[in-house]
């Protein structure tokens, strides 16, 4: 379970893309997930992301992230219908609640909450996909060519939460091995047992910060121009995927100008499928976004593709 937070190099096709290609692909996915509100577009993108994660041998990681996204999605689906009052199709007339008012649940609010949960799941899936595709060291090395110090700060920030989670698990395992049951007793007793735990975490974090500073000083950070341990190579596969990303971007912009990708939830539900032009844009966008996992699948089974890209 601990390795779910970390990138694991398996030598896969999608892990050997140029960092710029990975940035473009995952960045476009993230932007489209935020911009689009039509459930069909979000569902199609989610299917592509899940396929990409499967090609990255990330089924277990997907299950782990799905549990997190599921809990957050359930919370969103419950809260939005209770707080939103804009829908006209009332499913249930509830009592009057202080501060909130009349507790009416509408179809529009329920479906809007479901769509928000879908978007949230898509964003988390894109993050999981990026975590499987991109080595943090390669990512920071690429960013450092533009903003060196900012890249270091970003690298330390990205590593902070996974490192603290791993350390917290180790400390908790050690305390349980010594006979300390952190989950027994009342709230006061549980907090009292966790005080030594928090002290160890604080001391460990300070010690790790000191070690990081020593390592940076030993490597003469900031004393001169940076060197490159690895030179990134641009391959035909990067050209193909970058072209697909650019076509997807142009298609998305054209669709947004034409009103495709949006969906009206309030005050009444709009037309889900839209015009034929919107369906055509959805098909083109889905095909272009599916090119990376399709190439990864072909790379495994077809020697022709392996030699060409």
Word description of this protein:
- The protein is built from 11 helices and 2 strands, in the order H-H-H-E-E-H-H-H-H-H-H-H-H.
- It has a two-stranded antiparallel sheet.
- It is mostly helical and 309 residues long.
- The chain has helices at residues 19-35, 39-55, 59-83, 107-133, 136-144, 148-177, 187-218, 236-257, 276-289, 291-301, 303-308, and strands spanning 90-97, 101-106.
- It has one domain.
- It is flat.
How are the SSEs ordered, and which strands pair?
Layout: H1 19-35, H2 39-55, H3 59-83, E1 90-97, E2 101-106, H4 107-133, H5 136-144, H6 148-177, H7 187-218, H8 236-257, H9 276-289, H10 291-301, H11 303-308
Antiparallel strand pairs: 1-2
Helix pairs in contact: 1-4, 1-8, 2-4, 2-10, 3-4, 5-6, 6-7, 8-9
List keywords for this structure.
11 helices
Percent of residues in helices comes to 55-70%
Name the poorly predicted regions: none
As laid out across the biggest beta sheet, the strand order is 1-2
Number of helices: 11
Sequence of secondary-structure elements: HHHEEHHHHHHHH
* Integer-rounded radius of gyration: 24 Å
Number of strands: 2
Content-based structural category: mainly alpha
> Which whole number gives the mean pLDDT?
82
Number of domains: 1
Largest sheet: 2 strands, antiparallel
Shape, please? flat
